[in-house]
Write a structure and sequence with these properties.
Structural class: alpha+beta
Order of helices and strands: EEHHEEEHEEEEHEHEEEH
Organism: Actinomadura bangladeshensis
Shape: globular
Keywords: Lyase, Pyridoxal phosphate
Cofactor: pyridoxal 5'-phosphate
GO molecular function: lyase activity
CATH topology of the largest domain: D-amino Acid Aminotransferase, Chain A, domain 2
CATH architecture of the largest domain: Alpha-Beta Barrel
Oligomer: single chain
Helix content: 25-40%
Strand content: 25-35%
Distance between the termini: 31 Å
Mean pLDDT: 96
Radius of gyration: 18 Å
Pfam families: Aminotran_4 (PF01063)
Low-confidence stretches: none
Number of helices: 6
Number of strands: 13
Length: about 250
């Protein structure tokens, strides 16, 4: 934990029932492989998550945090020999506002870095970026990558509508393989394509996706208000995601 040598998943729960737990645990396993950690025991983590939820209040909306680290180690960067540690906690989650204002930060995501695409506990970059955004009135920070293309938010993926086309950056941009991103593409559609950062400013509409946001329309980018929030495409995406996620709790 002290050196950020770990991975985690955030899972949404509604009235005590987790959403897309299987997908989240599969991504946890991919992140573990990317860090060279032993493969987590899927069944143990799934059962542990259900037990934690059973012991907690049945909040209308809750956030589960599953953290898996390399375990105790010496001071410094070397790993210890005791093996991984796991923690699972849950707490209430306030709904996000109906729309988001976003701020583009001056630091790029490194799409060629060792941690690219992994959901790790090394979160200082995200914390700094989100603080930068909030100081400027934003509710989420948006990164470009080192190529200058649109990448992702600190805890979200991003979709833009250009000339009626719904587009999101590909995983090769360095963005996280978001569970809600994948479900939006499966349930509603869209294209994966490299986008210039300027495409965000000239978008007809745009939205964020994440576990706790679901599909959240973007109202403004760096203080510039987009033509609509939600626009017609975003409104349909919100409706489609809400309908399918209500039917399938572990899609």
């Amino acid at each position: 934990m002290l050196v950020g040598d770990g991975i985690f998943e955030t899972v949404k729960a509604t009235n005590g029932v987790p959403f897309a737990l299987t997908r989240h645990l599969r991504r946890l396993a991919r992140s573990a492989a990317g860090l060279g950690l032993p493969e987590p025991d899927h069944d143990v983590l799934a059962q542990g998550t259900l037990e934690v939820l059973a012991a907690a209040p049945k909040w209308p909306l809750a956030r589960i945090r599953i953290t898996y680290t390399s375990g105790p180690g010496p001071l410094g960067s070397a790993r210890g020999a005791e093996g991984p540690t796991v923690s699972i906690i849950v707490g209430p989650q306030d709904p996000f506002p109906p729309t988001a204002d976003v701020t583009v930060v001056p630091w790029p995501r490194n799409e060629r870095g060792a941690l690219s695409g992994l959901k790790t506990t090394s979160y200082a970059e995200n914390a700094l970026a989100l603080a930068y955004a909030k100081e400027r009135g934003g509710g989420e920070a948006i990164f470009a990558n080192t190529a200058g293309n649109l990448c992702e938010g600190t805890g979200s993926n991003i979709f833009v509508v250009l000339g009626g086309r719904l587009v999101t950056p590909p995983l090769s941009s360095g963005c996280l393989a978001g569970v809600t991103r994948a479900l939006t593409l499966e349930w509603f559609g869209g294209e994966e394509e490299d986008l210039a950062l300027d495409d965000l400013y000239r978008a007809d509409e745009a939205f964020l996706t994440s576990t706790t946001r679901d599909v959240q329309p973007i109202r403004a980018v760096d203080g510039t208000v987009l033509p609509a929030a939600p626009g017609p495409v975003t409104a349909k995406a919100v409706e489609a995601f809400a309908a399918r996620s209500a039917e399938l709790m572990d899609p």
